[in-house]
From TrEMBL:
An example Gene Ontology biological process: response to stress
Residues in HTH marR-type domain copies: 13-152
UniProt protein name: MarR family transcriptional regulator
Pfam families: MarR
Source organism (scientific name): Pedobacter agri
Length: 153
C-alpha cells in the first residue's frame, strides 16, 4: 500500500510546508520553556504583545484590533483575553463609541509580565535563529512576503 502513495516532493526536505511545520514545532518548544515560568502560553504572549504594540499609538484597542494585528481568529482571541483578564493581565471595558466592542488594556501586572516575556522571547529568538547570521534579514523579509500574500486565507 505505501508504495502506491505518491508525493509531489522527492524527500521531506524538499517540502517547504513540512520544513515550516518542523521549524515551527521546534521554535514553539523553545518558547514554551521561556514562557512557562511566566505562566503564559505562546498564544497568550502573542496577544499581550499585540496589545502592547497597538497601545503605543492607540488608546482604544479592541479585540478585533488584536486579532488583526496577530492574524488570529476573533473567537479564539475573545477566549484567550478572558483568560488573561482572569490572570489580572488585561482589563476589558465597554468601548466609548462602539457598544459591540470592548476596549482592552494592559494592567500593571500585564505590562510587567509582557516586558519580562519580551526579554525572554527576544533572547530565545536570537539564539534560535543565530545560525542564519547575515541571512536573517532575508529570511524575515521572505516571511513578511508570505504573510502578506496569504492573509486573506
Amino acid at each position: 500500500m505505501a508504495n502506491e502513495i505518491e508525493f509531489q516532493f522527492k524527500t521531506p526536505n524538499d517540502s517547504p510546508g513540512y520544513l515550516l511545520g518542523q521549524l515551527t514545532m521546534l521554535w514553539q518548544r523553545k518558547l514554551k520553556k521561556v514562557l512557562d515560568p511566566l505562566d503564559l502560553t505562546q498564544t497568550q504572549f502573542v496577544l499581550l504583545a499585540a496589545l502592547g504594540w497597538l497601545s503605543k499609538t492607540n488608546k482604544e484597542v479592541t479585540q478585533i484590533d488584536i486579532a488583526n494585528q496577530s492574524n488570529t481568529d476573533r473567537m479564539m482571541v475573545s477566549k484567550v483575553l478572558r483568560t488573561l483578564q482572569e490572570k489580572g493581565f488585561v482589563t476589558r471595558q465597554e468601548h466609548e463609541t462602539d457598544t459591540r466592542a470592548k476596549t482592552i488594556r494592559l494592567t500593571p501586572d500585564g505590562e510587567n509580565v509582557l516586558q519580562k516575556g519580551l526579554v525572554e522571547v527576544e533572547n530565545a529568538d536570537k539564539v534560535f535563529f543565530a545560525s542564519l547570521d547575515t541571512s536573517l534579514s532575508l529570511f524575515n523579509k521572505s516571511m513578511v512576503q508570505l504573510i502578506d500574500q496569504n492573509k486573506s486565507i
